[in-house]
TrEMBL record:
Keyword annotations from UniProtKB, A to Z: DNA-binding, Transcription, Transcription regulation
Record-annotated DNA-binding residue ranges: 33-52
Domain HTH tetR-type: from-to ranges: 10-70
Protein name (Swiss-Prot/TrEMBL): AcrR family transcriptional regulator
Pfam families (UniProt xref): TetR_C_33, TetR_N
Amino acid sequence: MATRRDRLRAATVREISETARRILIEQGPDAVTLRAIAREMGMTAPALYRYFGSHGELLRHLIGEIFTELTAELMAATKAVPPDDMSAKFLEVARQFRRWARAHPREYALLFGVPVRGAGEQGETDFAQECARQFGWTFMSLFLELWKKRPFPVPADEEIPAALREQLARYRADLGVSLPLGVVLQFLKCWIRLQGAVSLEIFGHLEFALDDPEPMFEVMLAELGAILNLPYAPPRPPSGS
């Protein structure tokens, strides 16, 4: 059972995280400094070092918490559709990813503006890394389920360029899964297009041509569905429309 001191510490850590996120949303990532957080909380900056050893450690804790929130929303999206409807699962998770990003552009930029690199010592996985892996596994587990229930066309190993084949094999080993390399290739192709489309929109790189990127996003989803032998269905109109 946690002691009172432990509970107080946990509550303070939550307040620090909430304050950091509020500053992130209102002012952007550059404003999330220990001094700014301390000022908002009525503390001194040195006092924060009792909870986080550095500014980088605090940011990585915040990254981990946001990844956990996003993962929970994507998992909830998979449970909102019939369990055996793989097309609905794929489409709903992809659309929820975009909806979350549009609703949380500053948080999205913190997670996906730069890669989450390891900060643990001696090969250890830190909190942010682990939460990022859990997020990534949301999509990989969907692919594993799809491959098990209704396999889709994949290239044979020898059809994949050798330089790419070696990298896919290494990534597969890191994942600890037993899959044809072609499945791993299709997974990465789909993820690159999905996350690339969302990032281009969130970072404002589609405004030169599109006022509303959603129709283009749906075209992309239909094309990914064709690759995976999944029928495409347009999104349902909002209730009351």
